[in-house]
Amino acid sequence: MQNQGFEPETCIPDGMRHGGSLAKATLPEPIKALEPFKEKLHIISGLHGIHTSPSHSAFFGALGGYRGSDGVPPSASTIDYELSRALPETLLPHLCIGMDSLENMKTKPTVANLSASGAGQPIFMHSNPNHLYQTLYGGISKGEIRKQHEARSGMLDRIGQLAAAKGGTLPISEKQRYGEFVQGFEDMNGLRERLGSVSDHLRNFAPKVDDRYSSPEFETDWHDVLLDLGISSLKSGITNVLTIGSGRGEIFGSWKGLGIEQQGHNLGHMKQKDNPIWIKIRQYNSRMLVKIMEELESVPEGNGTMMDNTLIVYTSNNADKQHTNGANWPVMLLGNCDGAFKSGCFTHVDGKRPINALYSTILRSVGVSNDHFNMTEKMAKKFDSGSGPLREILA
Amino acid sequence: MRVILRGVVACALGAGIGWAEPYTPGEPVKLGFKDFASGFLDYHCLECHDEATKKGELSLEDLGPIDETNADLWKSIWAQVSLREMPPKKKEQPEVIERLQFSDWIVAELQRVMKDKGGFQAHLDPQKGNFLEHDLLFGKLPEGIKLAPAASPKRIWRVTPQEHITRLNELINSEPNYDPKKPGVRTRGDVVPTNHGGELKLYFGVDRIIKWQGGTVAYATSVKSVPVVLSSARKHGLENYPNFYTVNSAEATQILGKAEDILRYMAYGPLSIANPEQITDDPNTYEKVRPKGDLRGLPTALVYSTKVKRPLTPVYELMKASELSENLLQSAVDYVFEAVTFRPPTSKESEQYLLVVSEAIERVGKEDGVFIGLSAIFLDRDALFRPELGAGGKPARDGRVMLQDWELGLAVNHALSYIKPDEELRRAIVEGRMRTKVDVKREVTRMLEDDSLRKPRILRFFRDFFDHDLGGYICKDNNALAATGVSARGTAHYRAMFDATASTDRLIELILEEDKDVLKELLTTQKVVATRNDNTYFGRLRTQKEREAVAAEQRRAGKVAKEKAAAELKILNNKLTSLDDRIKAVKDGRAKRDLAREKKQLEGARKRAQDVVKKGVRKKGNPSVEEAKLSGSQIFARVSHRSFGNGSMKPERTLATAPEGERLGILTHPSWLVSHSDAMDNHAILRGRWIRERLLGGGIPDVPITVDAMLPDEPNTTLRSRMRVTRETYCWTCHEKMDPLGLPFEMYNHAGVLRTTELGKPVDTSGAIIDSGDPKLDGPVTNALDLIQKLSESERVEQVFVRHAFRFWMGRNETLNDAHVLQEAHLAYRESGGSMKALILSLVTSDAFLYRK
What we know:
The structure holds 2 protein chains of 2 kinds.
Chain A lengths: L18 E3 L19 E5 L14 H5 L14 H8 L8 E5 L2 H6 L2 E9 L2 E6 L2 H9 L5 H23 L6 H26 L1 H5 L7 H4 L4 H17 L6 E5 L29 H22 L2 E2 L2 E2 L6 E3 L16 E4 L10 E4 L6 H11 L11 H7 L12
Helix pairs in contact in A: 2-11, 4-5, 4-9, 5-6, 9-10
Chain B lengths: L1 H13 L18 H12 L1 H4 L21 H12 L13 H18 L20 H5 L16 E4 L2 H12 L28 E3 L5 E4 L3 H7 L2 E3 L21 H20 L14 H7 L12 E3 L9 H7 L5 H16 L5 H29 L5 H4 E4 L12 E2 L2 H12 L6 H8 L6 H13 L6 H11 L11 H5 L9 H23 L3 H7 L2 E4 L3 H4 L2 E2 L2 H42 L3 H27 L9 E2 L6 E4 L15 E6 L12 H6 L8 H12 L23 H4 L6 H7 L3 H4 L11 E2 L1 E2 L2 E2 L4 E3 L9 E3 L2 H9 L2 H16 L8 H13 L4 H9 L2 H4 E2 L1
Parallel strand pairs in B: 9-13
Antiparallel strand pairs in B: 1-6, 2-4, 3-5, 7-18, 8-12, 9-10, 11-12, 14-15, 16-17
Helix pairs in contact in B: 1-2, 4-5, 9-11, 9-13, 11-12, 12-13, 15-16, 15-17, 21-30, 23-24, 31-32, 31-33, 32-33
């Protein structure tokens, strides 16, 4: 989920207007890195998100398919959370990573702008790789990370015990509700223990901690290691759903490590097509996508690889551009999820189906039937010309 | 069949199982399906709902004892019978006790059967509070009912999100003391309010920010803040019963993370979030050394003053000291414990947490160890749940135990306040003077009389009661919003609604200050607390004809202005030509400069005239709305800290009078009207339901799942007309309780603007009060003002208000055993001339508040 919009011209091959195979097309410069993966790629334009009022950012509405705005709490759950509910249970159901300027990631290591488990229930993105590493791999870490991990573990064990002890005197009617609180500690400690119990397995996947964690030169150092952590959590089976917010769903962001001196909101006001700055950012994104695919291809799964059963959705939290009305919300899909989705092509839909239809399609691919994701019939009548999945993208 | 069944019931009663013994509400149900419920169904229901008749496509003939497969059906039966919807009024009615016992039996059975399947709690929901017949609570009870002494269950009560944030705010921000000259300005003890976007957040150090880069969004992004992490239901009503919430692991994890942020800020202030050079009283010094480039949206875009504003606590002392001392550590532990639980730790608790902190320090050193260790206290049970367990009290013979000491003191504190007990209350608790009803009366009276002791819980009650704070969260369709006459640009409407919430809150406070006929005043006041936007929201939508006339006038005025500007332009051009000649001719330097200055001025005037000629003049006023002229003295409303730079909410308000004959009390204010609207239109059903439940004390059964609860989508048709579908017999039994009460509000559009026409015809504002329970009230009403006037004069409405206050302060639905408490509370309210203080005092000194069982 890259912020500041995703101009369709920066991903649709020249000369393609209504759709067709990508086999003979040349991908535009910003996404050139995906050229070898063209058969896995599906470029979609013409979905809309008018009802999400994206303008600067639709915030939770980008993944939720409802109106969002700065400071406005989520009004329902988002697609990534719903997917994590539908997919087989994992140690950590859902991991969200947020990439921003180094300052923002340091001073606000967890923010919530994109994912939510329900109305008023945001899910936080992790932006400090040291904290995330501690959470995921504290049990197999060494040195300072190990010490921090042990200090926190010790504290959590203690408060778990204290909490349990204070439940003893409660009446039966209250025991169950309080029990959920105590269970929370058991879950937290349990996650640690579960991660600990598979430490030999995790050791094979944990990224190597280097100087980029403790002394990053640029924000991209942290972006890179966060991506490593995210990929490792997929490969190791810690989670099945990974959400990456580049720019953390807001209107700022920084890529000094790519040699881009300008940062923040100005980037959003620039035209993206043929803009060297945006070409660099999009190329960086594309390299990240390639990395995810290559890494997942290296993990055998069934008769193929983990990538064969994966779908990567790449888009923006504010449709096509800054100050947009959301009439066109381009998306790139990578992978076909065991043949469920079409790939190797470009599809232009007529601008009458909302991003909710895409989410509805994805949710159906994991067996959850729904006609309009997060949309009442009344809203759907106004904002969706169809019902159910987007047939154009299904195999 | 009927004749035979009479015999069955008679047998059951003859066996003495029914109400031969006195009936005591709340006692375990001894009756069973075979010996009681089955007979009830046979006698009262099967005449219409047997296989042969199957009225409403429902047969109960084969309905067996409650199990998980028929639980939904039994739940519907429970609702219908409790609400006295069934048997129909024209049929023979069950005796009161029989009905109550049947209802008790269903609830008990549903609880038993559903125990491992998510449980059954519907009867505990405040929306079902009215399932208990109003007249039984306030009227004479039939013989055979023996009430038990009032008491509430032993319980732990989770703190609310607002309470939690306000509690944490105390650790990092010093709020100003109460200023009697500006009573509306937010002060210490007031709740941390939602921000410009309606989001509840805790801000770090914004009281010290003296400069920032970029606009409003850049400011909001660069400022450190903590969102609320405890969950809560959005569409609230009474949203804070103890049994509603727990704290899940996701919340606990976040609380821990945020606790470390808070503790670091307590120790280091803005230095915990900023670089040393950002802390200066002269922003220019930072300007010279700040990172180059665009800093908007970054924490380094801020400059903080050097003045320390946060409270300096033992955590600060601990981290300032170069050596780690046990004394400092202990006092930090004890301080944090009391700050988050509102009571001092016991010596055991103190020791336990000292151990947690010491262990953490041992592992990672003082710097991180202190913060990791102290953060544990934020997850203590009593930091998140307030216990009301009757600890230390001796149960009386009836099994009740009175709260005492800290439990009682904190219960009293919580009844009014979100922050820890003030010194006097604390002293009373510590000195053993919080053990009797007299103690409670003394402290509550004192607290109610002291304006400087803020009481946000009272305001919270009114928010929960009126639900007037939801307007900003109702997502509007842009075209539908524009058609109302208010601004549909950007977030203007939503921000206006968050402002309107703060304004209505303030209006409620003003009425509470008078403390006379509070409910009646709230329902009928002509006062308006207004922002400038409210001139539109309290205005009148012009008719099509009027709009055309205004537009024509605007066009005419534009034409005149253009002509005038063209004439001026001619003159200015001539003047400039002659001035150029003079400039060329003059030799003296000073005179030349004077003429050049004059030329600049003339050029400015020419530019303005050219613009008018080219683009015309900006149209004055809103052609769609005849604005209200809300004027009066300046007052203040409680708004959040500067959270959005220059775009933050402003506290300034005007205390005005509503346009005559157009509004009547809060229910006619845009904050309430929009809160009870939807994306496209008014929500007459929701409004009607609100009146039925909150003012008339009626109940509405849940919508049957077989009902497709949708109005037809017919553009250019009035809501009233589209609501014709609810008049079908199957729907109307419920909708007649709501629709005629909601439709009188059609005199306003869905932004709350008054309208006299709708789709070119006079708007139909008629409605009716049907079967209210108070025959004096029943009958047609001409519009919302007529409806509200009638309701405001009803004693029943007053009693229903008291029932809601009971629920709020007791945290549970009333039972028949609470009848005396409710009657006393109502009497206190009446005899005091409608004083909210008297009502609260009566409630919190009642047995229902003081005793646990």
